Amino acid sequence: MKWATLHTVGWNQKVQFRAETKTTLREVTKAVDAELERWGTDEAMVVIHAGCKEVLSGSEPHEEVLNDLRARLQRWKERAPNSRFVVYALPVPWRGTSEILNTCKRWNDGMRSMCRELGPWVEVAASSSFREEVPEDLIYSENMAKDIGKRLGRRLKEPMEREVEKRIPSQLGDGNSQPGACTNGRGTTQAERWQGTQAYVGFPGANGTGMEKWIESLQQRGDMEGVPVNAEGPYTWPVAEEQTSADLRMAPTDREIKRAMKRVDAGTAPGCDGLPMSLIKALGPKAREKAVAKAGYENRLVRLPEQNVARRMLVHTIFAGRSTRWTRRTAALRRHFGLPAVCLERANEEGKTKPGEGVWLKVHEVETTAWRDSAATKSSLEIYRGEKPEISTERIYDNSRGSALLAEARVGVLRTRLWRARFTEGLAKTCALCGGSDETLSHVVLECCEIRPPAGTAALPIALGFSVEGGELRKVVEVTKRRLEYWWRRGALRV
Questions:
Q1: DSSP structure class, residue 351
Q2: Topology of domain 2-193, per CATH?
Q3: Which of 77-91, 197-211, 291-305 has the lowest mean pLDDT?
């Protein structure tokens, strides 16, 4: 049951599970007392699953046990007024002695009556979905424990998801939700029913004050200037001149942070005018790395001694003609990159000191050829394909507005007036700042005397960061970024 519950909630560390065998209800309530004292929070969800030992032993009257539980629940409610409590009923055996059946029914009836008296903040959860599998000793079978654990996990997962989703505006949803509404498709009745955000099985410290403290700290630092305060939604700042990925500030909830990091990692962090930073995407390293890893690993396997288990498994798969996910994927990568098939007879031939080197070179050659052929089909990439013959990582971008404009300029799609005139009839082509010549890429980056600071070089490829090596040339690229930012603020045409 514990494994099924934690698996359902995704092993969330906010869920604390205390499970012990042969534990009485009084012992469980004492443990809850200690945990609530340790948490020090006024908002929690406490789930209690006990009572079998009292029913079987008959050590004390049920009324006394239930009265003690009622008193503790009232005390917990006073200590944590925003908390909710769930008490599990006992499973009723489908067969057995009439004494056990009647005892379980009386216990459950007393539990339901107590919860009705206490109010809606205490609920009774049934656990009798597998009645035919409940033995007379009331010990759950494996299937029943898994089923109860999954249902409990879903109930715990629901308020945790809602705690995040209630801070996400409808713009981040599917476009059909109303502002402030949950976008997970669940009804408001269920939302009102589970307003608590913790569980015993629980997670302390989620009483809503974290967002307010976070906003207050930003206000003290002066970072909230011009931004409306709204604790229900995320905050995004306009892109600054020296913005980094850390400046994409959003409300500190798990889902919003994950969304922000995905946007940054995927190269789609908002740059100038909300445009993505990555404008060119060739084959990319993913397919190349997979091909090198899989084919190289297969080549190393066939060179292992014949008694090696991994090699024997590979040989058996080849001779048996088994089609597995591994063989299909590796064969597809070999065909795509033109790699030779595995030859067992020539696996141990001499003359190949680095087994993986040939694979990497072949994959790199095929990938580079496809990359060049793709660039040759685009007229805007004339400067790019002429100055960058190999696939390599660029380290001149810093997620600033100037970097976004530099990326556009490098691939020939900087939104100058001359470039826009290709798509809009009657559009003026003259530079709005100097008025002396047409607003072209070269004019903006190098020639216009009204753009500050002055250009650091007279060569357009160097100004755009091609073949940049050393600190001095990197300074030239930084000057280009500042010029592009200046042009974008004061002279760029926006239609």
A1: S
A2: Rossmann fold (3.40.50)
A3: 197-211
Residue ranges of domains in the chain: 2-193, 285-372, 393-490
- DSSP H helices in 266-397: 285-302, 309-320, 325-337, 357-376, 382-387
359: helix, strand or coil: helix
Tokens of 64: 């006394």
- Distance, CA of 330 to CA of 314 (rounded, Å): 12
Between CA 310 and CA 307 the distance in angstroms is 9
Q: 45: which residues sit within 8 A by CB, 6+ positions away?
A: 83, 84, 85, 86, 156, 159, 194, 196, 197, 198, 199, 200, 201, 202
d(CA 338, CA 322): 22
Q: Could you give the count of Cα atoms lying within 13 Å of 343 in the half-sphere of its Cβ?
A: 7
Question: In whole angstroms, what is the distance from residue 370 CA to residue 385 CA?
Answer: 13
Please, what is the Cα angle at 271 between 267 and 273, to 5 degrees?
Answer: 135
What is the layout of strands, in order, in the sheet containing 45-48? 45-48, 84-88, 122-125
CA distance linking residue 283 with residue 77, whole number of Å: 59
Tell me: the pLDDT tens digits for 423-447? 888 888 899 898 889 999 999 999 9
Q: Is 218 helix (H, G, I), strand (E, B) or coil?
A: helix
Amino acid at 319: F
- For the stretch 309-366, pLDDT in tens is 888 888 888 778 778 887 888 888 788 878 777 776 666 654 454 555 577 777 888 8
Give the H/E segment covering residue 124: strand 122-125
Helix (H, G, I), strand (E, B) or coil at 352: coil
Alpha-carbon distance values, 343 to 326, 347, 348, 359 (Å)? 17, 6, 10, 14
Question: CA angle 324-328-334, nearest 5°?
Answer: 145
Q: Hey, is 106 helix, strand or coil?
A: helix
Q: What are phi and psi of 331, to 5 degrees?
A: -65, -40
